[in-house]
Amino acid sequence: KAGVTQTPRYLIKTRGQQVTLSCSPISGHRSVSWYQQTPGQGLQFLFEYFSETQRNKGNFPGRFSGRQFSNSRSEMNVSTLELGDSALYLCASSLTGGFTPGEKLFFGSGTQLSVL
Amino acid sequence: AQTVTQSQPEMSVQEAETVTLSCTYDTSESDYYLFWYKQPPSRQMILVIRQEAYKQQNATENRFSVNFQKAAKSFSLKISDSQLGDAAMYFCAYRSADNQGGKLIFGQGTELSVKP
Fold this sequence. Notes:
By secondary structure, chain A is mainly β. Chain A has strands at 5-7, 10-13, 19-24, 31-38, 42-50, 53-57, 64-68, 74-78, 87-94, 106-107, 111-115.
């Protein structure tokens, strides 16, 4: 079974631009969640999608948005990039996003975004 | 709000020896899940071990075991017979058992090095 796939692996953008990151979950998984990882703030939850609906949202500005398609693939978008948006963005998938006791979360290898 | 604290930014262990990584958390909830994740240089987060708060018995997975002290809100990870491949960043994480889906709250991480 293929794991969680994130594309691209690396991205370089300049301030003010926008960027779209993609995440393909494990086949059959309906929940996708996104995390931002920085040396200063650590790992922070961005949002979670389940069956094309945003179910949870972290404490990030509206410049960060996401969506999920009918095949469970998810994209996150960051508009008007700032230097502080430079980070590793990780996505994780699970069958039901926690509604099944003992359910595991599987992570991708992330997209490293650099904002110049 | 829940918080997770890892007080050891770095730890070192000799190959074949045992090491314990510390984690404390704060929550007012009675039902939740605790996790230890490993992040090697490949950046992919790998689940090491999981503990359900309602289970008094400490979880074990081969060379990995936890010491879960619910009253003290402590969740340490013990790695026995350490191997070179155990070198990585280790994150302690918390997830509510209520409708929080894929939202994990992470600690700041402990970087473990293994000396041959």
